[in-house]
Design a protein that fits this description.
By secondary structure, the chain is α/β, with parallel strands linked by helices. Among the domains are: 250 residues, Rossmann fold, CATH 3.40.50.300; 63 residues, Alpha-Beta Plaits (2-Layer Sandwich). The protein has eleven helices and 13 strands. It has a six-stranded mixed beta sheet, with helices on both faces. A four-stranded antiparallel beta sheet has the order 11-12-10-13, covered by helices on one side. Strand 6, helix 6 and strand 7 form a beta-alpha-beta unit. The longest helix is centred in the middle third of the chain and has 16 residues. The radius of gyration is 25 Å and the shape is elongated. It binds adenosine-5'-triphosphate.
């Protein structure tokens, strides 16, 4: 098990991770989600002892990584697939990692087979595609047959077959009782792969719960109701009756009604009492992606602005119309508008979440729901309220990911630590607690500088 308690990391003025507490348990795939720059890689580096926490602790099986007996054979990681010596053959790369950890050479051939790189084992990795590099990185992580595996964006650059393979690999590793912690930006993939999610935003915990709970907690379930299109008055009649009964009714583009706030049997009863026939009454739930966007929209650091292309375009002559869009190709000479059903539109700074035609995913447009994205904490109270520090040092390449070799002497059982203060769903309707100071146990740890080894 991986356990973080009050984990904080500052790089100079920049707080990359703040007071993060969570557990990653064996026997499940735990997805690690967060917008760009939210601190996922920093957290993973601290787990692997590549960065020192400014405060707090993180342990694997009860030990900080650097004190873990036989660490390279207990923990395997893929942090950066490009962190390989490009001039080495794939096999030699793995062989050198194996030798450093006392792993027999035959294991190298085994993992080359597992990741499907046998054919290119004697090829220099600098000629590898992105996907092949990812496979080589995964092979390195598997070398030691470790109980604990960390993967930072493992499906980056993989084709659909490769993505499916990684998904099945993660699941089978977890099914064998291993601890699998995997970060990804591909929500659809996480929905299929992960059992549990840890979501962070601006270095702070936003959610620690099962995928199913996360989706239902961060999305409003709704019902689609369709009345016979031949009798539009029935639709109006039903909409009024449902609204009167306390439901929230919005029109769908195809003429159906999207209803929130009433259970399906109640909708059915109301329709029956109103003498309205139904052609459809179906339950719906937002996808993980929608739920994730909804939760993290308040914690996104990098947003695109509309490109004004100032001075780059000839102004249209008075009365002239812009060129007609070409279906599927956007508008010639113009940037294509976002797709009409994209649902999520990033809110402008200072505004609440963008409401689509029906509000954000059928939920109230204003972030008042129990799981609305937290409002920013007052300036001064929260390290993230500070203006961005002057250009943080460009992150250097992480050190070669710890090749994790094989079945370690079972790690000492993790001392049962107190349950970390995982963000309880109910607390998420409020602004994050003003982090006046780390509240979790914060054993002294060396304060590191931006030039920390990565
Ligand atoms: N060595 C460093 N020195 C200074 N700032 C750093 C360093 N490493 C990370 N940061 C900053 O810490 C913040 C968190 O970065 P991190 O790479 O952990 O985020 P992330 O969630 O992994 O992002 P992404 O999804 O884009 O990979 C960022 O603002 C980043 O610029």
């Amino acid at each position: 098990m991986i356990e973080a308690v009050g984990l904080t990391k500052r790089y100079g003025d920049k707080t990359a991770v703040y007071n993060l507490s969570f557990q990653v348990r064996p026997g499940a795939v735990t997805g690690f989600l967060g917008p760009n720059g939210s601190g996922k890689s920093t957290t993973m580096r601290m787990i692997l002892g590549l960065d020192n926490p400014t405060a707090g602790t993180v342990t694997i099986g009860g030990y900080p990584y650097r004190k873990l007996p036989n660490a390279p054979r207990q923990v395997g990681a893929l942090l950066d697939a490009k962190a390989v010596h490009g001039g080495r053959h794939a096999r030699n790369h793995l062989l050198s990692l194996a030798q450093l950890s006392g792993i027999p050479a035959r294991r190298v051939d085994e993992v080359l087979g597992v990741v499907g790189l046998q054919e290119v084992a004697k090829k220099r990795s600098k000629g590898f595609s992105l996907g092949m590099g990812q496979r080589l990185g995964i092979a390195a992580a598997l070398l030691g047959d470790p109980q604990v595996l960390l993967f930072d964006e493992p499906v980056n650059g993989l084709d659909p077959e490769g993505i499916l393979w990684v998904r099945n690999l993660m699941k089978s590793l977890a099914a064998e009782g291993r601890t699998v912690f995997v970060s990804s930006h591909l929500m659809s993939e996480m929905a299929l792969t992960a059992d549990h999610l840890i979501v962070i935003g601006r270095g702070q915990l936003l959610a620690d719960m099962s995928v199913t709970d996360f989706i239902s907690a961060n999305s409003a379930d709704f019902a689609r109701v369709r009345t016979p299109h031949t009798e539009p008055q029935l639709r109006e009649k039903l909409a009024s009756a449902l609204t009167e009964a306390g439901g929230h009714v919005l029109p769908e583009q195809d003429g159906a009604l999207r209803v929130t706030g009433l259970p399906l049997p109640r909708i059915s009863d109301i329709a029956h009492d109103s003498d309205v026939r139904l052609w459809e009454l179906s339950p719906h739930q937002a996808s993980l992606e929608e739920a994730y966007m909804r939760m993290t929209q308040g914690a996104v650091d990098y947003r695109s602005t509309i490109d004004q292309k100032a001075g780059l375009q000839q102004p249209l002559p008075p009365g002239a119309q812009p060129p007609m869009p070409v279906p599927g190709q956007g508008q010639p000479g113009w940037y294509a508008p976002p797709p009409p059903h994209a649902g999520y539109a990033p809110p402008q700074p200072g505004q609440g979440p963008a409401a689509g035609a029906y509000g954000a995913y059928g939920a109230p447009a204003a972030p008042q729901g129990a799981y609305a994205a937290p409002a920013p904490a007052p300036a001064g109270a929260n390290p993230y309220a500070h203006a961005a520090p002057p250009a943080p040092q460009a992150p250097a390449q992480p050190a070669t990911p710890p090749a994790a070799p094989a079945q370690p002497a079972a790690a000492a059982p993790a001392p049962q630590a107190p349950q970390p203060p995982a963000a309880a769903p109910a607390s998420l309707d409020k602004a994050p607690p003003a982090p006046a100071g780390p509240s979790a146990p914060a054993p002294s740890a060396p304060t590191t500088q931006p030039e920390d080894a990565r």
